From TrEMBL:
Name listed for the protein in its UniProt record: MJ0570-related uncharacterized domain-containing protein
Diphthamide synthase domain residues: 9-206
Entry superkingdom: Bacteria
Species: Flavobacterium nitrogenifigens
């Protein structure tokens, strides 16, 4: 039997990460040494998801895999983001890491970007749930006993009533036809708090629901942010966030 290859897992705290991690843990080809998560340095919350670091740390402890936090400024330029990521991955490579695992499903340009950046460092990307139909994924996720709560919605696709809801069949049935059931186009983000990868559920209470709209970067910088979108209207819409408080 071959020795498992050392890998890091890019952990977002949400459902796609949870299912991809579950599948990777069933794969004897890899041994996950670390969870790696990007955190907004100013607010100490997971980028885009808005989850407090304390809850992220609770997840990692329950999963039983060491956590590495990648601190980035809000709306970093690509240069800043790539510099921090390269430094972190280069450091982890010294521990024998050869692979970086992601929960991406079907965004081709994002996968290509990740693979190109990893190749510069000498790492390989792994995508355990790539191209699996999202309806199949969400049904498997629920059937395995995972539980996840919607913590952020993009108002372009969903209204305030969807944030703070647990994803179940009723939630899926209520989604508009133009919204992917896994939110793969950025329609919503989640926090997974129970399931087969956890030794115990993550204990939290729901705090306030807040609305936030991001300012569009200056024109000369608008194509150079790590949060950039090809959609010219991306900054016309805001986000509803549901704050989760560690108990």
């Amino acid at each position: 039997m071959s020795t498992p290859q050392k890998a890091l897992f890019n952990w977002s705290s949400g459902k796609d990460s949870a299912l991809a991690l579950y599948k990777t843990l069933q794969n004897s080809d890899f041994k996950i040494e670390y969870l790696l998560t990007s955190v907004n340095k100013q607010y100490q919350r997971i980028s885009m998801h808005g989850i407090r670091v304390e809850l992220l740390q609770e997840q990692a402890q329950s999963i039983g895999i060491p956590l590495k936090i990648l601190e980035v400024p809000e709306m970093p330029t690509m240069e800043v983001y790539e510099k921090v990521m390269t430094e972190t991955l280069t450091e982890l490579k010294q521990d024998g890491i050869t692979h970086s695992i992601f929960g991406d499903i079907f965004l081709e340009d994002l996968r290509q970007y990740r693979e190109n950046q990893l190749a510069k460092i000498g790492l390989k990307g792994v995508f355990p749930i790539w191209k699996i139909p999202t309806r199949d994924l969400i049904e498997e996720f629920i059937s395995l006993g995972f539980k996840t709560i919607v913590v952020c919605v993009n108002e372009k696709y969903l209204d305030k009533s969807f944030v703070g809801r647990i994803i179940d069949q009723d939630f899926i049935n209520d989604l508009p036809e133009n919204v992917d059931v896994c939110g793969e186009n950025g329609e919503f983000h989640t926090f997974t708090f129970d399931g087969p990868i956890f030794s115990k559920p993550i204990d939290f209470e729901i705090g306030e629901i807040v609305y936030r709209k991001y300012e569009k970067p200056e024109k000369q910088d608008s194509s150079n942010t790590a949060c950039d979108s090809n959609d010219e209207t991306a900054f016309d819409f805001g986000f509803w966030y549901c704050d989760l408080i560690h108990k």
